[in-house]
Design brief:
With 93 residues, the protein is mainly beta. It contains no helices and 7 strands.
Length: 93
């Protein structure tokens, strides 16, 4: 879930709570941790979690609040903590 605050660079009090604002859901892509992403520890872990990612497009000069919401097979819902990132203008390299 993401919430966009145009023009803001640092989180305000309103950005530090789930309530308020308009939240938008995003689909996440599952990326198996294999190849160069695979763990290299020894011994290897018995279970390896997958990586999940989402792309946010069309946002510039804005603070983006986000969290991940997970639902298990029994319908239990868990939210991650709120995170924040500032998205600046696109820079040509």
């Amino acid at each position: 879930m993401i919430r966009i605050s145009p023009g803001r660079k640092v989180p305000a009090k309103a950005n530090k709570v789930y309530a308020g604002g308009i939240w938008k859901g995003l689909s996440m892509k599952r990326v198996p941790l294999t190849g160069p992403l695979a763990p290299t520890t020894g011994p290897l872990p018995e279970y390896i979690a997958d990586l999940f990612q989402a792309n946010v497009t069309g946002v510039t000069q804005s603070l983006v609040d986000y969290y991940v919401q997970a639902v298990d097979s029994l319908g239990n819902i868990r939210n991650s903590s709120l995170q924040h990132v500032y998205v600046a203008n696109k820079v040509a390299l």
